[in-house]
Design goal:
Length: about 300
């Protein structure tokens, strides 16, 4: 079997700021093509990792190659071949959608013979053709992110590094943005996207779950959920806080985690504890709307990894 073609390979990549270890010995491979998600809360090291891979900051130690180029010794070669979209992409508010695209085409050195065709292609692709003459300051949050992505794609990068591109964007715009990413993947694009949202982890081909600068586990969403070591009971009860406290005190219940409008009870044997939990809560005056076994989510997996 021939070796996999990796877009990114890192080995013990580390970044410190004084005594703070922002990224701790990151060892990771990104296949080509795929969408790899760096998933974790604020402070997990996602942004710092992407900034190192983009050649924006130098690592304190370790090694990384992006598209075959060393990120320290061949930084300019890396920058020329990637598209990096930071959390606060620098769109120009007083320029129109089309003028922003034209500006970034100039910055990236897109040949004039290709520029118009490429801009039209991206306007259609991002669903912005009807807004080409609208100034960026008057775009919605989701449209601004789509324009930022179009500007990032203007020079046909081989790799996209997207830092929390949907943070603060409404759910409909998030779905539209991910639809664009899937279309890019079908075209052969490799994408690394960071996100704090566990539901977005489900959308990635593979996920690297991060916390406190370290990668806790890497795998496909089905692989990570299949390795979850416990069982889950989904509980809808009123009042929820009292239900959680009572359930956690019962034998066989390890934890109770809020999940939307329900609770996920982490148990060793769902069948054995389901009816005792229902009976105990009802006896204590808690209204049990429903209590049923359910599958682990990426949020359940992440919390289990955090707690060891």
């Amino acid at each position: 079997m021939p070796p996999l073609d990796y877009a990114i390979e890192t080995e013990s990549l580390t970044k410190t700021f004084g005594e703070v270890v922002a990224v701790d010995r990151l060892t990771l491979q990104v296949r080509r093509p795929e969408i790899l998600g760096l998933v974790g809360p604020d402070g997990a090291g996602k942004t710092t990792a992407l900034r190192m891979l983009a050649g924006v900051i130098r690592p304190s130690s370790g090694h990384a190659r992006v598209l075959g180029y060393d990120i320290v010794r061949q930084t300019e070669a890396v920058k020329a071949r990637i598209g990096y979209m930071p959390q606060r992409f620098s769109l120009y508010a007083d320029l129109t959608v089309q003028e922003n695209l034209s500006f970034f085409a100039e910055v990236y050195g897109v040949p004039h013979a290709e520029r118009v065709e490429r801009m039209e292609e991206l306007l259609r692709f991002a669903g912005l053709s009807a807004f080409r003459r609208r100034r960026a300051e008057y775009l919605s949050g989701g449209m601004k992110q789509k324009l930022a992505l179009a500007c990032t794609l203007i020079h046909r990068p081989q790799l996209l590094l997207l830092d929390e591109p949907t943070t603060g964007v409404d759910p409909v715009a998030r779905r539209e943005f991910w639809s664009i990413l899937y279309r890019l993947l079908v075209q052969g694009q490799t994408i690394v996207v960071s996100t704090p949202y566990m539901d977005e982890a489900e959308r990635c081909n593979r996920v690297a779950l991060m916390a406190a600068g370290r990668v806790l586990q890497v795998g496909t969403p089905p692989e990570l959920k299949a390795a979850y070591p416990h069982e889950i009971l989904e509980l809808h009860a009123r009042p929820a806080a009292r239900a959680a406290a009572l359930a956690c005190a019962m034998p066989g219940v390890r934890d109770a985690c809020p999940f939307g409008q329900s609770l996920h009870l982490v148990v060793e044997d769902a069948q054995a504890v389901q009816e005792p939990v229902r009976a105990a809560l009802t006896a204590a005056g808690v209204e049990v709307v429903s209590l049923r076994p359910t599958s682990a989510t990426m949020e359940d997996v992440f919390l289990a990894l955090l707690r060891g």
